[in-house]
Amino acid sequence: MSAKKGTAALLAAAVLFLAACQSDGTAGRDAPTGRATGRGGGTPDDRKVSGLRGITLPSWNTDDYSSPEAAGYLRQIAATGARWVTFTPTWYQGRVTDSDLRTTDETADDDSLRHIIGLAHAAGLKTMLKPHVDLVRGGDRAEIRPRDTDAWFAAYERFITHYARLAADTGAEQLAVGTELAGTSGDGRRWRRVIAAVRGRYHGPLTYAANYDEYQKVPFWKDLDVIGIDAYWPLSGKATADVARLRRAWQPITEELAAFAARRDRKILFTEAGYVSQRGTTTAPYSWTISKRAGEDEQAAAYEALLATFAKKPWWAGVCWWMWDDWPDSGETAERLAYTPHGKPAEKVLRRWWSPSSPSGDRG
């Protein structure tokens, strides 16, 4: 989910699935260590990319992750039964055609990231670092199409290898090499170069978080360990809290994902999935502002439908929900209408599915 304080980012509406693009580059992983083995089509270590039960804790300011609230948020996340937490440091560029990336006062400070990763590990949570690129004045990062492609990729490589080193230094268990950059993700040659640079600095599992209408066009999945999808598919034409109806809506999507996972020989991780507690959220899960009417029952039904649909799929690697609570004074949506499941029926759904006796896979 495109996230910037003060910006209610709306992603594109649902589109028809596009024909899959065959990847011609590979980068294998050996099972004991997860280290890159170079080209050759090796399969990923499923022990490291399966059973992810996570929640995202995004940051909107430099010191969010070192704030007094950080430890409490992590305890709350762990109490749901989650075993992973995702952190999202963000750099910015001015316009979609620009080539420079920079930090701002909304970029998580490196020391705060080290701090919260340490807190997460102490709370028994594994961590995924999922760096974002956003636009200074808001807008959809999927529209980034730099005028100088070489310069942008050079800047992007500096950005993402910075976090690869930080992930390695802190023992972060997984890293996303990019998020929803549909305007550049079709450039397989340059992205493979970026991925190789990341692997030179970080030896854990890698993914890329493609939007739901982007993933079939990404040509470098076999260079990564798991396919990442931000799973904001619209599921209904009107507001509904009918779990059975929502599960039927997931069925054709599930069939396509199963076939795609088989073709790419990779499991699929929902690097994001989420629903605001607003009436109509299932019609546009990517929208922060679908309605001014509360819809906690619809949010809970959407959580239930997703987990019930995917929990036992052998090709599904898990989900990282968007998102836990906003930091004090930073939320742009009232908590009762926001993505957070905290204190709502959706949190009860998570606790039920993620309890030790749940059917949703291993403990991650």
From TrEMBL:
Tagged with keyword Cell membrane: no
UniProt signal peptide: 1-27
Region (Disordered): 24-53
InterPro entries xrefs: GH, GH113
Record-linked CDD domains: GH113_mannanase-like
Lineage: superkingdom: Bacteria
Keywords carried by this UniProt record: Signal
Positions with biased composition (Low complexity): 24-36
Protein's recorded name: FMN phosphatase YigB (HAD superfamily)
Organism: Streptomyces netropsis (Streptoverticillium netropsis)
Taxonomic lineage from the root: Bacteria, Bacillati, Actinomycetota, Actinomycetes, Kitasatosporales
